[in-house]
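queue> pop job 88
queue> type: inverse folding (structure -> sequence)
queue> payload:
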């Protein structure tokens, strides 16, 4: 009996040690791995992964922390067919996040509001979590916000900011030819 307890304790310690030796990808690893996926497998995305992506968005900072985002998870056959009719850039993904902001909640300053900025931060968190989970995404602004709002019967105060198709990349999915082109920091950064 004592031997069995010691063996179980040793096994538990060994497995926890093995797990701690596994390298978690860094943010930079994820940022390098992420690309705009435009070809998706028709494998359903597990609800636990959708929940994790939404939770990552929930952690995002927003102006004055008002959290004006409202995300519609388009995943029913009807919703996916509808969004694919409204834009060719939903790419027939099994899930499309329709990221909106509530115009009643956004922070306003001098005629500008934080809605698109807040949604962009939320979307970036979601996109990186999806990458960590082995899913692909694509940031899409090519759609008519008024048509989308009407088609999905959004409340008048929910303004569409962008779409984010999401799913498992198809076997032949690959980054766009321009994906790896990056300007040198000397062209995009100035120290003063």
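queue> result:
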């Amino acid at each position: 009996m004592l031997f069995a307890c010691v063996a179980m304790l040793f096994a538990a310690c060994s497995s926890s040690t093995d797990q701690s030796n596994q390298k978690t990808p860094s943010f930079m690893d994820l940022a390098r791995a992420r690309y705009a996926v435009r070809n998706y497998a028709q494998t359903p995305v597990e609800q636990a992964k959708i929940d994790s992506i939404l939770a990552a968005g929930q952690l995002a900072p927003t102006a004055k922390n008002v959290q004006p985002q409202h995300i519609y998870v388009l995943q029913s056959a009807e919703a996916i067919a509808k969004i694919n009719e409204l834009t060719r850039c939903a790419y027939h993904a099994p899930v499309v996040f329709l990221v909106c902001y509530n115009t009643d909640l956004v922070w306003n300053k001098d005629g500008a509001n934080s809605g698109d900025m807040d949604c962009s931060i939320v979307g970036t968190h979601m996109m990186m979590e999806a990458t960590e989970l082995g899913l692909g995404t694509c940031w899409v602004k090519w759609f008519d916000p008024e048509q989308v709002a009407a088609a999905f019967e959004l409340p008048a105060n929910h303004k569409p900011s962008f779409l984010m198709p999401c799913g498992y990349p198809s076997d032949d999915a690959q980054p766009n030819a321009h994906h790896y082109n990056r300007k040198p920091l000397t062209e995009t950064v100035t120290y003063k």
